[in-house]
């Protein structure tokens, strides 16, 4: 069987996640907290929140809009919008997942994903901007 040089063997089309090249999308490795009940696939463009403060903080990422951990009946984990997932990632129930996310970049807000029934707040947008992530409204093509 011969191979043709004019074939398109693999193609990834634009998904409109990245709005502009400045600031550049800078990837880094993150640890996503394991799921409690069932494995889930987080899609590229999912906004992740960092569990970095409070007595229940563990330094791991969760999807933005996740309910904070509670101890003694009170929420004492603070989750702050931090980064954008760079590729689809399966998060299981047995172990935390390691994934690639963007720590900086310029993204189309309407292409981002957060937890069901959650909407990006002004505080979330400010936390992302402070981290180096800019958001723009863009028309899907």
Secondary-structure-derived class: mainly beta
Q: What's the N-to-C terminus distance?
A: 38 Å
Q: What would the average pLDDT be, to the nearest integer?
A: 88
Strand content: 35-45%
Whole-angstrom Rg: 17 Å
The total count of strands amounts to 11
The ordered string of helix (H) and strand (E) elements is EEEEEEEEEEHE
Query: What is the overall silhouette?
Result: globular
Helix content: under 10%
Number of helices: 1
Which spans have pLDDT < 50 for at least 5 consecutive residues?
Answer: none
Biggest sheet architecture: 7 strands, mixed
Tell me what the structure shows.
This protein is mostly beta strands. 7% of the residues lie in helices and 38% in strands. The protein contains one helix and eleven strands, in the order ββββββββββαβ. Strands 1, 2, 4, 5, 8, 10 and 11 form a seven-stranded mixed beta sheet that branches. The longest helix is centred in the C-terminal third of the chain and has 10 residues, at 122-131. It is globular and about 60 Å long. It starts with 17 loop residues before the first strand and ends in a 5-residue tail after the last strand.
What are the salient characteristics of this protein?
single chain; 141 residues; mainly beta; 7-stranded mixed sheet; 11 strands; 7% helix
Lay out the secondary structure:
Blueprint lengths: L17 E3 L5 E7 L7 E3 L4 E7 L7 E3 L6 E2 L2 E2 L2 E8 L3 E3 L5 E12 L13 H10 L1 E4 L5
In brief:
By secondary structure, this protein is mainly beta.
């Amino acid at each position: 069987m011969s191979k043709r040089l004019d074939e398109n063997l693999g193609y990834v089309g634009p998904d409109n996640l990245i709005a502009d090249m400045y600031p550049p999308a800078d990837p880094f490795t993150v640890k996503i907290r394991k799921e409690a009940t069932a494995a889930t696939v987080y899609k590229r463009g999912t906004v992740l929140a960092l569990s970095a403060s409070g007595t229940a903080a563990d330094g791991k990422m969760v999807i933005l809009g996740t309910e904070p951990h509670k101890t003694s009946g009170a929420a004492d984990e603070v989750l702050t919008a931090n980064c954008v997932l760079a590729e689809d990632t399966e998060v299981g129930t047995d172990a935390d997942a390691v994934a690639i996310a963007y720590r900086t970049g310029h993204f189309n807000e309407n292409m981002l994903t957060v937890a069901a029934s959650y909407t990006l707040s002004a505080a979330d947008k400010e936390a992302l901007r402070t981290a180096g992530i800019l958001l723009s409204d863009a028309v899907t093509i």
